[in-house]
Design goal:
It is a single chain. The chain is an alpha+beta fold. It contains three helices and seven strands. Strands 4-3-7-6-5 form a five-stranded antiparallel sheet. A two-stranded parallel ribbon has the order 1-2. Strand 6 and strand 7 form a beta hairpin. InterPro entries: Chitinase_insertion_sf (IPR029070), GH (IPR017853), Glyco_hydro18_cat (IPR001223), Glycosyl_Hydrlase_18 (IPR050314). It comes from Candidula unifasciata. GO terms for molecular function: chitin binding; chitinase activity.
């Protein structure tokens, strides 16, 4: 018997790798945090024994165009890394905070996720709102 099960609810695959998408969307028609947790519960795991794992790393992508920046917008096929932590296609939270200086924050109600846009840079990330929703 397990005391608890830790479900890693981050770095989930994108429904389309050619489009801007989140690594931990709460809701999605594809794989999502909600569907992952519900799969465990349907298999018999009690919710009280479930620990949801989240990440302070946001999905870092480059948009094809500054004018198309919503989730699902086309992205360039390149691997980006932040200046400090060098995570492939990821920005650690301190790097996301740096990007805030020149970026605009948006909230996607359908997925309950936030994303930051600065020029053609796009980051889907966790903040207090998305964590609280989860």
């Amino acid at each position: 018997f397990a005391d608890y099960v830790s479900v890693a609810a981050y770095d989930l695959p994108s429904p389309n790798p050619k489009q801007a998408w989140f690594g931990s969307a709460l809701y999605s028609q594809q794989i999502s945090v909600h569907s992952a947790i519900n799969s465990w519960i349907r298999a018999g795991l009690r919710a009280s024994k479930t620990v949801l794992g989240i990440s302070p790393v946001g999905r870092f992508l480059r948009l094809q165009s500054e004018s198309e920046f919503k989730p699902g917008s086309p992205i360039r096929n390149e691997v980006l890394k932040g200046d400090h932590f060098k995570i492939p296609n990821g920005l650690a939270y301190p790097e996301i905070c740096e990007l805030f200086k020149n970026g605009t924050k948006y909230h996607d109600k359908a997925t309950e996720m936030d994303y930051l846009v600065s020029g053609t840079n796009w980051v889907g990330y966790e903040d207090t709102e998305s964590i609280e929703a989860k």
